[in-house]
Here is the input.
Amino acid sequence: MTKRVGTGRTVRHILTAVDIRVEEGELVAVLGRSGSGKSTLLHLLGALDRPDAGEIVVGGERLTGRSERTLARIRLRRIGFVFQSFQLVAECSGEENVLLPTRLPGAPRGGTRRARALIEELGVSPVADHSPHELSGGEQQRFAIARALVNDPVLVLADEPTGNLDTSAAADVLRLLREMTGRGRAVVMVTHEREIAAAADRVLEMANGRLA
Amino acid sequence: MRGAWRDALTGVRQRRGRAVLTATGIALAAAMLATATVVAYGLHTGFDRSARAADLPDVIARFDEQPLTRVESRISALPGIATTTFRYEVTNIRIAGRGHVSNHGTVEVIAPGRRGFAILAGRGLGKSYGEVLVEQGLARSWGLHPGSTLYMQALGSVRVVGISESPDNVAFPLAVPRVYISRETSEAHFGHEADPDVNTAELWLKDPARLDEVLVQARATSYEIRGLRFVTQAGVKILLDEAAGIVIALLVALSAIALLTASVMLASSARAEVQRRLVGIGLRRALGATRAHVTLAQALEALAVGVPASVVGVLTGALLARGPTDRLLAVLNEVPPGGALFLPLLGCFALTTAIPLIASAWPVWRACARPPIALITGLELRSGSARGSQGGKRALRLPRPRGALGLGSRLVTARRVRLVSTLTVLGTSVAFILLMLALASELGELASNPATLGKRYQLTAALPASRASDVRRLGGVAAAAPRYEVQALDSFSLGETVDLIGYPGDHTVFEAPTLASGRRLRGAHETEVGLGLAQVLGLSVGSTLAVQLPSGREARFRVAGIVNSLQHDGRVAYVSAAGLLAGEPSASEQIAIRLHPNASQAAVSDELRALGARPAATSAAVGTSQALISALTAILRVVAIVNGLVCLYALMQALALTARERRGTIGVLRACGAGAGAVRIVLAGAAATVVLPAAVAGVVLERLALGPALGQLAAGYASLALAAGAGEIVIVLAGLALFAAIAVLWVGRLTSAEPIVGALQG
Here is the structure.
């Protein structure tokens, strides 16, 4: 796939002829420096943005050429996001943040049960009713991971998931990402840290919008 | 200064969308304020302005026709008279022109000298035969202008040379058509008289403050002059205010409310904007900008947005209100304020510019007193962050709304100051719109339903009192009795007129305004006075009402009760027929007829005609004033529409600011799979959180506070029901729901159009 920004003489190629295939149960790390295009790749894979050329298929569903409504439905049921800055909603407790995707129109049934199970599994049930500003960075990222998993997606995309965490918390998060793949999910993680990328099954290096 | 200007203009350019939103708010507030100001100022000052423009005399004396020399000698003996002119007024003259005709025209034959009316177009009367001046209401209604031709009974064809206006009466078609001709024209047709008859004298006093003394002297020296009645300038003003007084007072109150609403709206908007930009302000402080520079740049930016918006708003409001106001003033024979509006409108401009300026600059000035790092790290925005972490003690959490709707509600309640200010604006606006609708309904009732004045009879018949028993025998008639009415003057304040109304028995069968205090009258020497009269004359139960009757006699009545009456601004007094006729045997009489509930008014009218009577339906407060009512209704509509737009803006502003500030949150939601519909649900939750309490607060405020308070303010002389009814509440709530839906759709569309990636990074 290809992604450009700008037009005419100001056009810039962010991604050029990128071809990536991630299997079920695989943890793939995309490693690259700032501005290499790795976050853009993640956005395209997650249907947050559209490529200028090429085709993206997630869990057998083609993303390219689909309407916004369809893409929203695909994001809701098939894709989960983990952000570097956690992106928890400040007004909601940890548990409510996890429940958010389950209460959107079109979400699969059984969301509350799955959310509680995930919170238990990730070890944050004692602080489930705390607001984000009352939680540590590691706890916040666990809730963010639980939110990404709550609708049982086939693909989890993690954008610098350990970027705001200390070493110990980062190791925990990496372990959780690894555990996700054990249930047949594909996980794509982008990072600029080689040590973090080393935890993946496969490392793809990205530079100047191209995969090495 | 130059640097601050540059910063300010850069700020406006960088935040173009936000500047447009702020400017829209300022323009709407300015429009609302200007609308209220134009209407209130125009009406409140209309009579005095017009009286000055027309050189209205201090006193108009009307009497049965007398030779000029007889009247002139009496008046010349009065002290303190500056100028006098005499007229001869002829009524029920047939006038026709441009396809219109009236058999009730009034022709005033005027002499040279001071006129007592203004010339709006053309010129005054010359010495040529066949020239006529027409009153502006007649000219407007019939399409007459200088050069038009009129046909007048006895005079034939005459030429219109000018258009006149005088505030001594309302205009045609509320009043009869009025034209002026010169004495030369009259004499050319009817022949020269050495001592012509006159029936009206206009008196200008050297010292208008000594009016009462002159009137006492005039009454004392008026022997041989029959049918003498004085109308003072103050009296004319009272008569005219009778129709519009309620609305004028309400619109003055409207100005105050509009100012309050505008202030809250502009201040909250400006404060929210500053709150949003605290980090940027902190950065500039950290880079070395002085407190004064940052504040000045903010103030100049507020000016750059506020000045043009305020100008546009004030001009729009003034233009919107000008048409209906001028129409209303024309109906009242009053001059539009024109250039006199400049200063009040300048005041509106100054206020709507100063409020956002101060509301922007003051928080910046205060914020700059803090360490820059506190602003950069956003301590101001996260002041509540310590709440839950105090020694493990957790604050009591109330049940919180869930789901997308609940999230919207939480997002909007997170900004409490903004929420409160938006609720204030919406609640006040809802209350105010309800008030306008209630007022419109009340006006309609006053115009068409005599029962609002406490009148319980539906018909009157011009028959002698002795025929009342014949009327009582007619089918459909529940009660009939002679009704006597006479206009008297208060003995101690001759400018105050009083309608004395008398029935031979219990007057409450026919007229039963509610008792405010005391009891009903029981004898020939007792009276029930209207609250308006009691207030003006300082009467209370047990005191004495002394009045001068047209016969020249004085009558005294003990006040038994005070009643709520809207008739003649409450300047009425109910007395027994015997008490009234003892002082004024020639009081006008008619038969008041109360019908059975299911009786046909038309059928009874036919039977009355068969008895030789001329039946007339009972009129309400302004029963024939359709033009006045429609003009007032137009003004109320304009005000309500402007206020409705303010509601829409306040909602859009609240939602847009929330969506803008929480674009990251909405971006996360969309990344999690929320489509445009889910975003709209979030926004609907936010809108509902603002609209529902505001609607409840608005209804409660109008019904319990504003309606009763303004009803009292508008007509302290009576109980005026200005509480909104169910229908009006439903209309306003439906409008509010519609506005909320528009705001949700608009903001939802903008939000969903933004790339998710951009929102996540924002």
Observations:
- Chain A has one domain: 3-90+145-211.
- The first strand of chain A starts at residue 3 and ends at 5.
- The two ends of chain A are 14 Å apart (CA to CA).
- The interface with chain B takes residues 43, 46, 48-49, 68-69, 72-77, 79, 81, 83, 87, 89-92, 96, 99-101, 103-107, 129-131, 133-134, 147, 151 of chain A (CB under 8 Å).
